[in-house]
Structures are given as C-alpha cells and as structure tokens.
Amino acid sequence: MEALEPADFERAARARLPAETWDFVQGGSGAERTLAANRAQFEQARLRPRTMVDVSTTDQRLTLLGSPLSTPIGIAPVAYHQLFHPEGETATARAAGRAGALMVAGIFASRTLESIAEAATGPLWLQLYWLRRRDALAALVERAEAVGFRALVLTVDAPRIGRRLRDARNGFAVPAHIRAVNLDPSLMAASHRADAGSSGIADHAKEQFDPTLTWADLAWLRERSSLPIVLKGILTAEDARLAAEHGVDAVVVSNHGGRQLDGALPTLSALPEVVAATPPDLPVLLDGGVRTGTDVALAVALGARAVLIGRPILWGLAADGENGVARVLDLLKTELDDTLALLGRPRLADLDPTAVVR
Predict the structure, then answer these.
(1) Residues 150-164: what's their mean pLDDT?
(2) Is the residue at 64 inside a domain?
(3) Is 86 part of any domain?
(4) DSSP 8-class letter at 288
(5) Is 256 a residue of the active site?
(6) Which positions make up the binding site for glyoxylate?
(7) I need a labelling partner for 208 at 20 to 30 A (CA). Which of 100, 160, 236, 355 fits?
(8) 143: pLDDT strictly greater than 70
(9) CATH no. for residue 275?
(10) Residue 3: is its pLDDT beyond 90?
(11) How far apart are CA 77 and CA 71, in angstroms?
C-alpha cells in the first residue's frame, strides 16, 4: 500500500526491526509520561482558520543561521543510523538534500563526517555531547568545520542518561558491527556491552559524559570554532535568557524526545515561555512529538522558527532507506502546505499565536 502519512512508515519499520532496536527508538525514560505528553499537547491544540484569503500559493521557505531552506522541517540528531539501514547517515543526508531540509548529524553517527558531508546537498549541523575527553571533542569540531558543517548543536540536557526501562530490560547494547566511527574506539567500548539491568547506552554515558558542564564552558567551545553554537535541551525562560546572555546563536526547545527527565515539560508547552525570553533575532527551534505537517504549523505559530523530526525519519530509513526518509519528508511538507492553505495563512510569516487555541 502506498504510504499516505508518516505513521504508515511506523508500521513498516516495526515489522522490520528487531524488538530491542524498536524499543530503543520508541522508548522514553521512567514511566514515559513526558514521551506521551509531547504528543498529547499537539493533539489537544486547536487551530483558528481564517477565510477569504488568497491561498493559491503557499510558501514554507525560510533562512536559518544564514542557510536557505525549503521547509522548516529538519532532521533531529539520532545516533547510529546504521541500526536502521546499511547506508546509515549517508542515506539520510541524501534524502534531506532532496527535500531542501536541514540535517543535524549526531556525535555518535555510524558514518564518517566526511562521507555524510559528501552525500549532503543541503546544510548540515553537528550535534555534540560534552565529553570528559575534551581533546576528542575539539578534534571532532575541527573535522566538522573543515568538511562544511555549518553549526554545532550542544545537547545540554544529558549530564547523565535518563533511566530508559525498555533498554534496561532488553539489556540493549550497540551491535559490534555498528560503531560511532567519528570517535576513537576506546571511547565507545562501553556502548557495546550491557550490564544486568542497564544498557550499553547508559553505561557508556556514565563513563564518557562530563557532568560538570556549566555556562562558563561555552567559552572553551567558542574558542575552538567559528561555527554558530546552538543549545539543545532548553525548556525554561531562565535558561533561554542565559543562553542569549552567553552569545548562543540559537536554541532548541527539547526534552530529548521524552528520554531524559520523565515528567519534564512537553516541548509545545515550554515553547511560548522560551520564545518570550529570547531576543527576536535568536532563532528558537523545537523537537519532540512532531508527527504531522499540522504539528509543524502549530509549533511555528507559537514561535518556533523550525522543527526537528526524529523517530519518523528513522521509520522511513528502516522501511526504505533514502527513499523512505525522502517520502516521510515529502509527506510532512505536503501536510504543512495543506494546513497553511486551509488555515488561511499561506506563508510561514502569517503564522502567529492567534492561529492556535490551547
């Protein structure tokens, strides 16, 4: 059957992936309250359509940190794309380029930064965790800038990994044949084994992530690269103001897809206060729970410049590689076009909070 919505790829991916990999993708932390709340906030919001508006042409183009994009729908950083398809991140990058979409590659990508950059025809950003080994972090930043990545996305909500019970029950570890190839293997050994009642992901983070990260450390990162710095994991006005004060170039409202602090604010709830606390020229992005083009319109109306999509991209990758990812992005773009037209707000700039009732 022809896929008519991203959820069609969800069903196809579940049929193809091992159960423990499926749980790794779909699961959240704790009782998965935040995971469910991310979706619930989008499902409970309602739109206020305007009529008698010329919607013969819709336009979802934008410019983000100097890069022109065809859509505000980007690809969120997720580790180990080769868990889902042999071509991994290179397939994802090609699909993003076909869609004119931003791709944020993960620090634990399973393809080299160089091969991802070679495959990409659109803008690439690189996501980072703050590692204890700053020399490894600095080397990765240097490589990314050299091959054309356009921004660094520092994830700030993971001083340790949340208790992800599905992974712990499955004893999930990264298969030996799939590696985070951009880092020294000695840094990644723990990710390939799992202690009883834990997971390789959690054990690796405990070993390698530096929990002493503070706002003062941003100066160290700024000294090592001229690339814009984006902070991912901002949920409060207080942290949004501090990000602006420390010269950050953009922020991502994110709760790690419900995989860190269970009970944390859903992202659509947190978005308005973050937007209100940041200067108008500091872009605010959002991830977590976005599943449809209408969800994208809701986020943009409430102040997001763009959204990042995680799980649906992996569904498409698992189902049909590059073409699956491209089709997921195409479906989301088509849904967003339909929403803009039926909402009577044909351009992204026409979306504002008056379009939404929550």
Answers:
(1) 96
(2) no
(3) yes
(4) S
(5) yes
(6) 129, 164, 256, 259
(7) 236
(8) yes
(9) 3.20.20.70
(10) no
(11) 17
Residues 325, 74: Cα–Cα separation, whole Å: 11
Q: Residue 172: exposed, middle, or buried by beta-carbon count in 10 A (0-12, 13-18, 19+)?
A: buried
- Per the annotation, where are the binding residues? 77-79, 127, 129, 155, 164, 232, 254, 256, 259, 287-291, 310-311
The answer on pLDDT for 268 being more than 80 is yes
Give the CA-trace dihedral at 230, 236, 240, 243, to 10 degrees. Answer: -60
To the nearest whole number, what is the mean pLDDT of the chain?
A: 96
Residue 201: phi and psi, rounded to 5, are -65, -50
pLDDT tens, position by position, 316-329 = 999 999 999 999 99
Using one digit for the tens of pLDDT, what is the confidence trace for 340-356? 999 999 999 999 999 99
Residue 43, judged by CB atoms within 10 A of its CB (0-12, 13-18, 19+), counts as exposed
The pLDDT of residue 197: 75
Q: Which residues are annotated as a binding site for FMN?
A: 77-79, 127, 155, 232, 254, 287-291, 310-311
State pLDDT tens for residues 199-231. 888 888 888 899 999 999 999 999 999 999 999
Q: Which pLDDT score is estimated for 1?
A: 52
With respect to residue 87, please indicate whether it lies within any of the assigned structural domains: yes
DSSP string, 233-279: EE-SHHHHHHHHHTT-SEEEE--GGGTSSTTPPPHHHHHHHHHHHS-
Instruction: Please answer whether residues 128 and 154 qualify as being in contact, where contact means their C-beta atoms are separated by less than 8 angstroms.
Output: yes
133 burial (CB, 10 Å; 0-12 / 13-18 / 19+) is middle
List all residues 6 or more positions away from 169 whose beta carbon is below 8 Å from its beta carbon. none
Catalytic residue, candidates 81, 85, 204, 256: 256
Nearest CA to 103 out of 146, 59, 144 is that of 144
Do residues 252 and 231 lie in contact, with contact meaning Cβ atoms separated by under 8 Å? yes
Give, to the nearest 10 degrees, the angle between helix 267-277 and helix 237-245. 40
Does residue 61 lie in a domain region? no
Q: Quick one: the chain helix, strand, coil %, rounded to 5?
A: 45, 15, 40
Domain range spanning residue 254?
6-56+71-357
pTM of the model: 0.96
d(CA 308, CA 291): 10
